[in-house]
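Tokens in:
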């Protein structure tokens, strides 16, 4: 069970975040702080208590733009501690994702917070916490790990300190986040430090097409092409993505050729 601290200077946002966290069965306790200074005092108390003490904190869900000490400042301070809590940024601003992940953030959740998206962040935090505890345990016999080059049908992703290989055919679409890209599948998403332009070039022959400066989609996963008052969008699963005007004609042509081919 994770022990969480939520930090947000806007009271309604903080209460909503605490409500969603307390509804997640993986959260054992969730407290709130109205600013980074209050949060830092609470974290100092947690570190003095120790990882198994009554005041311990496993993960901080942290807003970025706050008066005084902001979320990025607090995260930088935490990197100076020997065993700091994990950090998940929860913010209305997408422009700080690269800085957040450079500070070893577990995840970057955009407001308004969706229950399913926050649940994924909690899952990531739990996996990383468990992996850190496993590494701290006395070592056993080293397992033999086969060394081989991953095939081009898969992409390596990091999850809780473990490298896994995601099948390219399972990826429905890719979302740009600065120098990073978030790979979406039916079972969740993974962040990789690869620019969207690189993946566009690498996967063009596999049926991926750019529909927007922020989105790359797999043609085979497009369920609908929607036209509404001059705007174009595609439906992938339950998610609707906008198509920019410069990419709309190419996308329609590709879909037509795929249908009639």
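Residues out:
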């Amino acid at each position: 069970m994770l022990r969480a601290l939520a930090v947000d200077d806007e009271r309604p946002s903080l209460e909503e975040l605490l409500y969603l966290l307390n509804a997640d069965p993986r959260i054992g306790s969730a407290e709130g702080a109205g600013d980074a200074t209050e949060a830092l005092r609470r974290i100092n108390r947690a570190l003095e208590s120790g990882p198994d003490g009554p005041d311990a904190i496993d993960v901080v869900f942290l807003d970025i733009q706050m008066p005084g000490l902001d979320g990025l400042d607090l995260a930088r301070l935490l990197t100076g501690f020997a065993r700091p809590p994990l950090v998940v940024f929860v913010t209305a601003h997408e422009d700080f994702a690269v800085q957040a992940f450079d500070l070893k953030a577990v995840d970057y959740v955009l407001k308004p917070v969706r229950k399913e998206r926050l649940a994924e962040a909690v899952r990531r935090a739990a996996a990383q916490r468990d992996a850190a505890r496993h590494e701290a345990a006395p070592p056993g016999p080293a397992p033999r790990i086969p060394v081989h080059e991953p095939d081009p049908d898969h992409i390596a992703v990091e999850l809780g300190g473990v490298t896994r290989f995601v099948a390219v055919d399972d990826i429905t679409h890719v979302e740009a986040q600065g120098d990073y890209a978030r790979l979406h599948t039916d079972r969740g998403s993974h962040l990789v430090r690869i620019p969207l332009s690189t993946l566009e070039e690498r996967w063009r022959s596999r049926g991926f097409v750019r529909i927007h400066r922020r989105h790359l989609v797999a043609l085979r996963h497009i369920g609908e092409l929607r036209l509404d008052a001059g705007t174009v969008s595609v439906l992938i699963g339950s998610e609707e993505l906008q198509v920019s005007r410069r990419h709309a004609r190419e996308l329609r042509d590709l879909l037509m050729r795929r249908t009639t081919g």
